């Protein structure tokens, strides 16, 4: 099924959830004009639907391959990457100084949604490059910026993130790779990195590895890791490429999905690299990349929801099977009420996931570019709160939607060559990488909730209460019901938040046993709020999407906000029992 | 991770949910003695854990292969099948007259849970054989029975079910295969069948195909299909094997899982077959196989829950990553409260799924063998109600549990060779085959609920109310809370049932749009009821499993029964809106 971007739904989320015009109004984006949104999105959709989508099944069937250290990308991927780079798509949100277009990050997120929806294995390559660019922008020296940034931003080279080692995954502080200083100020990096996405490939002439390693006598744990820039080919003073660096891709993982994205085992044998930022401060640099990447992975979740819905919709119209009321002869399965319900529910969930991720991106723009410090702080708090929810909630929903698409396909959904199967297999990594969703939940209740005594969530709930009031005054019957459901749901979120704050202070283990359930509840309620917010805004602006926005908010409220009260109980009640139940049901845990 | 059957949990469900002793007390099972349960289960576990489990990853990596019409099974499978057959396991629930052991079906279900848990690709072969045996027992002529049944029951031959064609899946009545009568009373069968599980293989000398086809001038649709017995090799009068029949396996599907189970495209070229039962009554015979198979697939869901939980538990104890409170140095991830919560929740869901499937099997025994007609009718009603719930609810939970196991594995869960990945991939077919879960939901609200005006469900709710009363009188604190939650949940199920009955009468499309959500709610509430029932029974009998039974019921009540009220609202509210939402959100549907 060819992917085609849902331009109207994306524009609506950009306008009413990301508040892209507020970013434009800060004056920080000289090139931004709200009239630019439509042509940019249409152009990106041509690339996504015309070039990347047709390569997606090819990539699934063929995958990337490794021979003698050389990774050959799936057929067509190298050419597609060149087209993508030449379109200037990577530079969208980056400074003009380095060749970027200095547009809001939320617009870049909208473009990347299309790339990820059309071809997620392809999309991982620019996604990792973004992380490298962000890290260099913040932490790089002027020389590093002038040597590497322009080529990364133009798409001429790509970047890869080398964090994980065999015994250092979620616990990155356990890594063992070494960086020995050379006389010329560079370092010699030695060690093995695993799960390195697009760590080696043939789609660009050079690859810039960002590698975490330890310098001699560095402190133990995460306070002793430093970030290094390790190019595949050294760059001569005139910008031309010199010798090959001494590292190799020694293996590709056999994964269940994203076959066209090479997942590399990288062996660094005294490879020459340069420190990015300060020694032993690699973790901070890593979190810059990581934060950007977490939002991008949440976006992959949105893209999965959308492509799963499109596949299910197209297949349900195509597949004839049996009779249906009011249809002569064989009926397409879309005539069955159960299938309609599935599609309608998928549409609401997809837009809720999009709303959350776009709201986080919009908050990020305003956190960086608001004109006063109070606003900056407010939106930073918002961004911090939303990023783990965006990552975990949207990727979990992505897997669920993919699962539903497979179900609509029936027996064909279990066949390896179908779109539905590929979407499901590709999607399954999203809740795992860039910090498992369990880690996102710990981040939400630990770093984001407990550290500011719930101020960010309190502000969010206040905003939800404003939405409830606004919804009631629109005079729209659907939104009146949404307001009622949101009222109960906000109360549930508030109660769960209080429980969580109390227990994080007094009984941390119990609190953490409720973290995943709490994140789910928070995503449900915030998703319902954002859909209502978009519906209200669309009515006020007489937006062409307004009928859709209203029904999406209503369906989501009926399907999901109705569950909030029950979910609130399921945050705390089982959490209180987990230790006892573990002891009763399972063998003793060895220390 | 080696699979090992949870003998105590299985025995508890057999005793208190399947009520196996009540089946024994009917006198219909001469060989049955409750002291037999433990040694039978232990012996079956030796086979499952010792022989079938080690072959499971091998089967995943190698799969079955086809060359020149010959299907070669995965390494070790043929020998394992011989061991399995020699153990007499297939004959457990079948009449002694044909070499069976005439034991309750619920005991056979317990044994098959272990086979499916250890190696689902292997387990599909006997599962399909069961269906063939059931059809022959009910519909076969004496000659057919004497020629084929003993060999099927001994496991010397296997049976396969040939229903699906390219345009006749869920709508089996659309099938086009032809059966032309020969002068000798046999028929010549011609047509192509797809998705035929273990349709061709090398693990036994003969295969008995049960094939649906149309005789000349048969009525259109499902009223014109007949069932035929088509052996791979003809059977001589002395029981020896004669010529090869004229059909071929012409292809194997490339699936995402159960690679060691050959899924065959079968081409019948005038193959010789014999009618089973009456002409044009094939659908009735098919439903005998189907009903047996649906419960077996629900059982696969249980087996997936169990093997996913075992894999997650073992991996969480083995995998060291980062620190945890109270642990020196690197801690196994099982120390994290989020992982403990996952495991505890998986345990409760697994036992609930087991309870539902075993209760259906127990009802089936009593429906067939109760000593009075009223009891027979009562348990038949119970069985009919529970089968679609067992099939759909348990397989959906299986996929969820498998997904959670992958999540516990983290990045390793996305690697093709890990147990967690295999469990998830293998499990994904369960909600699809033998009638998709959407079809189970339509069966529940259409055939099972509306046809008897809800009498079966009303009887079930009355039983739930009895459990609530019993739970309150045990004096157990956990069960008092369970009783409260079950009370609310039963009310929700009652309300949803009323809505469903009203709408099935007046507004069928709306009702059907709520069918899947209704089945989910019914499974949740009945699962909670059955866990409470087992806990109460275990306390009364001072069963060694009683502490576990109580905490499982409590955890399930906290996690799942708390959701019932919200789920009830989500049955009806979105269903009422589906048509409007479909029109607003999606392109028009072509007639």
UniProtKB/TrEMBL annotation, chains A, B:
GO terms for molecular function: flavin adenine dinucleotide binding; oxidoreductase activity, acting on the CH-CH group of donors. Residues 160-236 form the Acyl-CoA oxidase/dehydrogenase middle domain. Residues 461-578 form the Acetyl-CoA dehydrogenase-like C-terminal domain. Keywords: FAD, Flavoprotein, Oxidoreductase. Its cofactor is FAD. The keyword Oxidoreductase applies. It catalyses: 3-(methylsulfanyl)propanoyl-CoA + oxidized [electron-transfer flavoprotein] + H(+) = 3-(methylsulfanyl)acryloyl-CoA + reduced [electron-transfer flavoprotein]. Its EC number is 1.3.99.41. SUPFAM superfamilies: Acyl-CoA dehydrogenase C-terminal domain-like, Acyl-CoA dehydrogenase NM domain-like. Gene3D superfamilies: Acyl-CoA dehydrogenase/oxidase, N-terminal domain (1.10.540.10), Butyryl-CoA Dehydrogenase, subunit A, domain 2 (2.40.110.10), Butyryl-CoA Dehydrogenase, subunit A, domain 3 (1.20.140.10). Signal peptide: none annotated. Pfam families: Acyl-CoA_dh_1 (PF00441), Acyl-CoA_dh_C (PF12806), Acyl-CoA_dh_M (PF02770), Acyl-CoA_dh_N (PF02771). Residues 79-156 form the Acyl-CoA dehydrogenase/oxidase N-terminal domain. Residues 280-444 form the Acyl-CoA dehydrogenase/oxidase C-terminal domain. Involved in the assimilation of dimethylsulphoniopropionate (DMSP), an important compound in the fixation of carbon in marine phytoplankton, by mediating the conversion of 3-(methylthio)propanoyl-CoA (MMPA-CoA) to 3-(methylthio)acryloyl-CoA (MTA-CoA). PANTHER family: ACYL-COA DEHYDROGENASE, BROAD-SPECIFICITY LINEAR ACYL-COA DEHYDROGENASE FADE5. Belongs to the acyl-CoA dehydrogenase family. This is 3-methylmercaptopropionyl-CoA dehydrogenase.
